Each structure stands twice: as C-alpha cells, then as structure tokens.
C-alpha cells in the first residue's frame, strides 16, 4: 500500500476493498487539498465511503486531519460491539460526567417540591399500597391525566429501596445518564468517537437537562425513547446494517413504550420527523425503505406493548365512549374521552378544561434554546456550515437531526407549550453540535471566544452581587426575602421571578462557587480552543451544577413543605385539612404520609376525578371547615401565612394554635397542644429557633401584628 495516501483502502461490512486508482493517486500535499479530494470522491462514490482501517487515523492525524476526518475515521462499524471497540472510553467519560451530575442530585435535601414533584411520588406510593397498577389516584380521587410509565418505574424503585424521596428520583436520574450515554453512542456510530464524545458531553452538561430533571416529570424518559427510536430508524435503513429486522423491532418497541410514557406525542414526534426525512432523502415512496422498516409487524409490536393498559383503563373507568368535544366543570365522560380528547386534542388546541396551565410566548420558546443548550449553544452558527445531503451515514444523521428538531419545534409553535416540552430535541441538537465541534471551523473558534466573554461577564456579575449583599442580614429562611408572583406559577420556571437582590444574601456560598466556575470557564475558553476548551466548559458546568444544587437546598423551606410535615409527625394524632389546592402543599402529604380534606380545593387537576361516580367527599367549604374545627376532635390545617386573617374571621383567634412556621407557611391546630415538647419540637433547636424568630419578624414587618404579639406571648408563656 502506498504510504503517501491515507485513503487507499476502505472497509465495507468488515471486508477490505481496493479503491479506484484515481483515488489511490491522491497526493497529500496539504490537508485542505486532501479534504477537497475526499469530499469530491465520496459524493461520486459514496458506495465505498463507510469506514477506514485503524491505520488510517494516525496518518490522518499526522497531517492535522483529525477533526476533518471525524465523520469517517472514527465511526464504529457494524461488526464492532460496545465492548470490543475503543468507543467504550468515550462512553465511560460521558457516563462518569453525567453520573456525577445527576446521580449526585438524588440525595435529600433538597426535598421533594410542592406541586407535581411530590404529587407524582405520592401517586406512586398509592399504587404500591393499593396494588392497582391501572388507575392512578390522588387522595382517593381518580387522576387520569398521565400514562402509567410515569409512575411504574418509581413504584419499582420503592419496592427495591423503600418509599423515600431519593428512591423516587432514581428512575429519572438513571434516565438522564442514559440519554447522555445514548447520545454519545449515536454520535460515535454516525460521526466517530470524537464527535460522539462531544455530543454526549453536550447532552450531559447542558442547562436544560439539569434544570428540567429537578422535578419528577417523564420528559427525560420520553427523550430517551425518542432518541433510541431515531437511532433505530437510521440503523434499520442502513444498507450496511446486518440486522435491520432487530432495529425495526426496537423502533416499534420504543414507540409502544413512548405511548405509555407521554401518550400520542411519543409517536407523533418520531414518526413525523422520520416522514420528513424520508421525503427529503427521496425514500418516502421507496419500497426498499418500507421493507426494511416493516411497518405492519411494527404496528403489532406497538399494540402489544401499549394496548393492554389502555384497554383495562377504559374498562375500569366507564363510560367507554362520549361523542362530545365540550369540556366543562362537573362533567365526567370516563377515561377514554378524558385521556384522548381532553388531554390530547383539546390541550393541543388550547381548549382543555380545567385550564391549569399557561403557554410560553412563541418567540421565547425558540430563543430559550440558547439557554437550555448553554454553554454549547455558542456553537449553533457552526451547524449551518455542515453538509446535510444524505450521501453517507454522517450526513444522513445530520439530516435526520435537523428534521427531528424542526418538526418538534414547529409542532409546539402551534400548540400550548411549557419550557421543558422541547426536551426531546436536545439530543438532536447535541448530535449536530458534536459533529460541528469535531469538524472544527472558524465558527467554532468564534464560539469559544463568545463563551469566554459571556462566562467572564457572568462570573463578574456574580462577584458584584456577592459584594452588594455582603452586609445584608439573613433572618429566618429565604422565603422572607422573596417576592410573590402567583400569576407566573403556571410556568415551569415561574418562581424565578420571585428572586430579589436581598434573597442572594442567603445564597452567598453557592453564588461564590458559581462565580468561580464561570471565571474558570472563561479562563479556559480564552486560553484554549478545540478539545481543551470543551473540557474546560465541561468542568465549569460540573462546578456550576454543584452550586445550583446547594442553592436548591437553601430554597427548600420555600419550595417544599417538609418542615411542616415533620412537625405534624411529632404532634398528637389528628386529621388534616389543606387550604386550597392539593398541589400547593403536596410535599406535606408525602412526607407525613396521610390523606387530607381540601378546603375550597375543588379545582385544576383533581376537578375531573371529583366528578366521577363514587369519588370520596374530600372537598369542603368554609362552613364545613368551621363545623369541623369547632368540634372536640383534633384537626390540623396547612395554609399560607396570608390566610391567618380569613381563619380568624371564621373560627376566632382563640381556636387557632400555631404548631410550626416554615417558608411562609404555617400549621395550625384547633386545640392546645398539651405536651410542650410536642408543641415546640423542632423550634427549640438552633435552626428551628431561627426559622421561628424569622417568621415573627416577617409578620411584624408586614403589619400582621396581632399574630406577632399572640405568638410571642404564647412562646413566652411556654418558656416561663
């Protein structure tokens, strides 16, 4: 073989093939000339352009062609396996980085948050205790909104590890690590090991994946199934794939599993993206493509996986059919209508009832992806320089990733949407970014400089805030320093608007770590380019996510109600009433492990189930509350501190005894607590005393002086 040619041999299905003589005569005088010749030849002879022998890579590296040849020299051939190929090093790096981020966030604190976080954990517990794996219930009320794979992995985790907040998080953390690994494997197969590594790191360390896995929502699991479905789709179509039937079966299995995770969109997204790809690749009407995809047998696989649960849920929750598109209060049409018409069709049309959600403005929905994919979004312009003509594996993958991203974003442009709805397209963007970063270009170098400037500015801003709050006192918990924006809480990140400058005084340590992370990232991005700069950005995000987790611990009393639950567990036995909606104090019910009556709480997600035949009478009004509260039986109520005046007008101040205060929320009881140790358990500790005194100070400043003096006198009487 001529040593002056890096491309004399190619490999097809593991068999060496001598390339045409005109290619064998290419002279490697310059790296750029070689790249031009190879591109020209591969356009004409893409039949041969699959893999190089391992001996090609060192020679290409000698001519500084390491990044230029990423799309072919490092790709894992079909004959190689995960264990025998050198790609395991890439997978190990990505799994270690992702594991450090997501598995490290399993432990508590931070506790499960109020709202959907603790609700999902409690529904899984109800499934475990009741043994009913078909119909989800919350506080005894039918909860038909979500498919079962939302809860089943948590139930399995409970069976193995017991019912804990950290065991509820395990399936979601493993899914996040799995998505990062799968993106790296997909990228390695398509573009080579270097691009696969970059794609996996992009996925593992992007802001969006971390942010939207802090809550128990199934989108990270859906992202895994869609990514695997897209890879299986390409593998089934690949002429060099030796087992296309297996990949076609895996594609169908992913679609069926997705139906049990997120319902119809789990099929609409991959099928829509695949259809657009086939059209652009001129294979939509090709018999060969459909023969390899096996849609008929695939449909049976999908039905085999998804149909049994849908059938059982329909049978157990009649009526079976309801021919109406109207959705309103007090109406109950069974599972099938609610699940498909109300939750799928009417939600897409923004006509669903109850309307307990909001929608992100369309422009922001698109622009937010510069934040969700940060820090790697600075390389988005480099994607435009890539080739998408489907002539080889790399370019076919790029085209599919483009169709995948475009279809999903356009779909939600015409639908109601939340910030995290676009998570399933993160792997597609990571694949495009990994390919562009491995190829290298002027846009990559410019992006690295932009990253250095932006992270440097962020680091300096964090330092400036630290200086500004260095003398700000921090009484009680952080809730006293936050503002309130209830209208924003229908968005996933609505509580971000609650931040004030004074609140950063409670975040000095995480803010300092974040500042150090940004400044280190800025230094690495300014000093290096290419792989070293990418690794510096990865290290920056590891430190930043550590700071973010520490900040969530500080926010724990505000976002969670766990301290209230602990006070209930150490108080005399009594029944519980939750003021307003179940979701507002859901973590109390999870950590205290009890059901509750809901005062004026017939709203939002529980309204439909409350109209079902045989629904438990857990919803009460003010008159019923007064009757119950003035009985000899002990009752507790959990409420916001702003509800004090309303309760006083209902039952009188003398019948309201404060049990504990935390995060701007209180636990009240209707009879004095006989045991002083029970009454003040958790208060006469250093942390508890700070919280209690901070709450009193907050009430006094806000003009709630009657409650301030009442609690102060009560505390004084107990102490003396």
Characterize the structure shown.
The chain is 56% helix and 5% strand. It has four domains: 9-65, no CATH class; 88-108 and 164-439, no CATH class; 442-555, no CATH class; 561-719, no CATH class. The strands form three sheets. It has a six-stranded mixed β-sheet with strand order 7-6-5-8-10-9. Strands 1-2 form a two-stranded antiparallel ribbon. Helix 27 links the parallel strand 5 (575-579) and strand 6. Helix 8 packs parallel to helix 11 and helix 12 (244-262) packs parallel to helix 15. It has 720 residues and is mainly alpha-helical.
Helix percentage: 55-70%
Percent strand: 5-15%
Kindly state the mean pLDDT as a whole number?
Answer: 84
Q: What is the tally of beta strands?
A: 10
Coarse morphology: globular
Q: What would you call the structural class? A: mainly alpha
Largest sheet: 6 strands, mixed
The neighbouring-strand order within the major sheet is 7-6-5-8-10-9
Radius of gyration: 29 Å
Tally of individual domains: 4
Termini separation comes to: 97 Å
**Low-confidence blocks of residues:** 1-74, 676-692, 699-720
Helix segment tally: 33
């Amino acid at each position: 073989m001529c040593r002056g040619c890096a491309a004399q041999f190619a490999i097809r299905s593991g068999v060496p093939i001598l390339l045409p003589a005109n290619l064998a005569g290419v002279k490697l005088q310059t790296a750029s000339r070689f790249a031009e010749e190879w591109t020209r030849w591969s356009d004409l002879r893409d039949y041969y352009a699959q893999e190089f022998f391992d001996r090609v890579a060192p020679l290409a590296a000698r001519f500084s062609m390491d990044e230029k040849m990423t799309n072919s020299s490092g790709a894992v051939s079909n004959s190689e396996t995960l264990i025998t190929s050198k790609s395991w090093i890439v997978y190990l790096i990505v799994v270690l980085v992702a594991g450090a981020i997501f598995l490290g966030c399993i432990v508590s604190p931070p506790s499960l948050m109020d709202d959907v976080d603790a609700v999902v954990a409690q529904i899984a517990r109800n499934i475990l205790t009741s043994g009913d794996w078909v119909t989800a219930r919350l506080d005894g009320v039918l909860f038909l909104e979500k498919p079962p794979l939302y809860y089943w992995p948590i139930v399995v985790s409970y069976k193995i590890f017991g019912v804990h907040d950290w065991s509820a998080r395990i399936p979601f953390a493993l899914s996040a690590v799995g998505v990062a690994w799968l993106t790296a494997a997909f990228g390695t197969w398509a573009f080579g090991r270097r691009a696969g590594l970059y794609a996996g790191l992009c996925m593992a360390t992007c802001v969006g994946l971390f942010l939207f896995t802090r809550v128990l929502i199934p989108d990270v699991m859906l992202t895994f199934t869609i990514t695997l479905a897209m890879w299986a789709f390409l593998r089934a179509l690949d002429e060099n794939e030796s087992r296309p039937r297996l990949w076609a079966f895996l594609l169908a299995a992913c679609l069926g599993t997705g139906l049990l995770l997120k319902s119809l969109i789990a099929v609409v997204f991959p099928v829509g993206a695949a259809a657009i790809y086939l059209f652009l690749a001129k294979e939509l009407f090709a018999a060969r493509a459909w023969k390899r995809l096996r849609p008929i047998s695939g449909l049976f696989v999908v039905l085999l996986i998804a149909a049994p649960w849908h059938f059982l849920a329909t049978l157990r929750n009649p009526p079976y059919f309801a021919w109406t598109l109207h959705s309103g209060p007090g109406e109950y049409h069974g599972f099938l209508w609610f699940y498909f018409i109300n939750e799928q069709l009417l939600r897409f049309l923004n006509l669903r009832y109850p309307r307990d959600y909001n929608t992100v403005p369309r422009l922001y929905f698109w622009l937010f992806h510069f934040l969700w994919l940060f820090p790697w979004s600075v390389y988005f312009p480099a994607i435009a320089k890539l080739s998408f003509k489907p002539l080889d594996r790399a370019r076919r993958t790029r085209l599919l990733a483009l169709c995948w991203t475009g279809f999903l974003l356009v779909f939600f442009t015409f639908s109601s949407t939340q910030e995290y709805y676009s998570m399933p397209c993160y792997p597609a963007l990571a694949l495009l970014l990994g390919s562009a970063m491995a190829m290298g270009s002027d846009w990559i170098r410019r992006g690295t400089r932009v990253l250095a400037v932006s992270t440097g500015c962020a680091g300096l801003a964090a330092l400036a805030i630290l200086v500004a709050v260095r003398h700000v006192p921090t009484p009680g918990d952080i809730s006293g320093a936050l503002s309130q924006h209830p209208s924003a809480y229908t968005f996933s990140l609505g509580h971000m608007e609650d931040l004030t400058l004074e609140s950063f005084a409670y975040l000095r340590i995480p803010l300092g770590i974040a500042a150090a992370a940004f400044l280190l990232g800025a230094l690495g991005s300014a000093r290096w380019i290419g792989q070293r700069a990418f690794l510096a950005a990865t290290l920056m995000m590891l430190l930043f996510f550590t700071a973010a987790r520490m900040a969530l611990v500080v926010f724990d009393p505000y976002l969670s109600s766990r301290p209230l639950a602990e006070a209930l567990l150490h108080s005399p036995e009594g029944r519980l009433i939750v003021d307003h909606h179940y979701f507002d104090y859901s973590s109390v019910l999870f950590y205290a492990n009890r059901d509750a009556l809901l005062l004026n709480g017939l709203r939002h997600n529980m309204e439909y189930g409350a109209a079902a035949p045989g629904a438990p009478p857990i919803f009460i009004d003010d008159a019923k509350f007064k009757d119950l509260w003035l009985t000899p039986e002990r009752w507790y109520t959990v409420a916001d501190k702003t509800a004090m005046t309303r309760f006083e007008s209902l039952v009188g101040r003398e019948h309201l005894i404060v049990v504990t205060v935390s995060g701007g929320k209180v636990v009240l009881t209707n009879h004095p607590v006989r045991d002083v140790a029970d009454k003040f358990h958790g208060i006469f500790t250093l942390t508890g005393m700070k919280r209690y005194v901070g709450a009193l100070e907050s009430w006094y400043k806000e003009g709630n002086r009657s409650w301030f003096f009442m609690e102060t006198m009560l505390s004084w009487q107990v102490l003396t």
